[in-house]
TrEMBL record:
GO terms for molecular function: ATP binding; ATP hydrolysis activity. Belongs to the ABC transporter superfamily. It comes from Extensimonas vulgaris. It comes from the Bacteria. Coiled coil: none annotated. Keywords: ATP-binding, Cell membrane, Membrane, Nodulation, Nucleotide-binding, Transport. InterPro entries: AAA+_ATPase (IPR003593), ABC_transporter-like_ATP-bd (IPR003439), ABC_transporter_ATP-binding (IPR050763), P-loop_NTPase (IPR027417). Residues 5-236 form the ABC transporter domain. SUPFAM superfamilies: P-loop containing nucleoside triphosphate hydrolases (SSF52540). This is ABC-2 type transport system ATP-binding protein. The keyword ATP-binding applies.
Length: 246
């Protein structure tokens, strides 16, 4: 199975702080993967290096087969990235927000409309396309932001805490759409989340990050089985960090 994401000794320091510390990762193409860990563990910093937004201090990383430093623009052509902070423009409609992204990604003019309709369809926003985003719920805005990253038909989709701040119904709804997208396109999903039950339900593999290092990784089932019968991913989190999640 080819790697969607592969890192070797990937490291990032901020002054004296090593936020990401010699991380080795292998995420197969077509899988759903989550980075888990407490606040400040280094998850976002790792994701920002993989999406070419932050240069590594050391080590290597390849995304979709391209080196994040030497082939950064090729990496960007093959990925989608949805950061934590909500970023859609509230004064534009859903369609207009998507059009901006289609132009940014240089989707050729004759196929822009089809790509935008496809992205709206995947995220269940067809009926809201002509509505100003300021009238969207938090869950709809989040789905629009995922849709923005889809106009590029990414091979690897990076989602940084995509359901943070959403109520359980909206969270479920976001994940139903992401799962349908994965099933149809086999897009690799690389995400961070603080919701252990979400990681458990969705992911083929997870990695726990603590103080910049990967301390455990594997399928949720295998990680739970190591702790014994009846263990949850929350128990795994507690055993690794010594703290309850959240
Ligand atoms: N630009 C920066 N300058 C200095 N320190 C930074 C910078 N970005 C992140 N850090 C530090 O690096 C560490 C890791 O932060 P990061 O945001 O990657 O953690 P995280 O696991 O994503 O946390 P959260 O779950 O809260 O989003 C933290 O100590 C943070 O303060």
């Amino acid at each position: 199975m080819p790697a969607a994401v592969e890192t070797k000794d990937l490291t990032r320091s901020f002054g004296a702080l090593t936020a990401v510390d010699h991380v080795d990762l292998f995420v197969p193409h077509g899988s759903i993967f989550a980075l888990l860990g407490p606040n400040g563990a280094g998850k976002t910093t790792l994701m920002r290096m993989l999406t070419t937004l932050l240069p590594p201090s050391g080590g290597q990383a390849k995304v979709a087969g391209y080196d994040v430093v030497r082939e950064a623009s090729l990496v960007r052509q093959h990925i989608g990235y949805v950061p934590q902070a909500l970023s859609a423009d509230p004064d534009l409609t859903g369609y207009e927000n998507l059009l901006i992204f289609a132009k940014l990604y240089r989707v050729p003019a004759p196929i822009r409309r089809a790509r935008i309709d496809e992205a709206l369809h995947f995220m269940g926003l067809e009926e809201a396309a002509a509505t100003l985003v300021r009238h969207y719920s938090g869950g709809m805005t989040r789905r629009l932001e995922i849709a923005q990253s889809l106009v590029n038909r990414p091979q690897v989709l990076f989602l940084d805490e995509p359901t943070v701040g959403l109520d359980p119904t909206a969270r479920h709804n976001v994940w139903e759409h992401v799962r349908a997208l994965w099933q149809q396109w086999e897009t690799t999903i690389f995400m961070t989340t603080h919701y252990m039950e979400e990681a458990e339900a969705l992911c083929h593999a997870v990695a726990f990050v603590h103080q910049g290092r990967i301390v455990e990784s594997g399928s949720p089932q295998a990680l739970k089985a190591r702790l014994g019968e009846g263990a949850t991913l929350d128990d795994v989190f507690l055993s690794i960090t010594g703290e309850r999640n959240g």
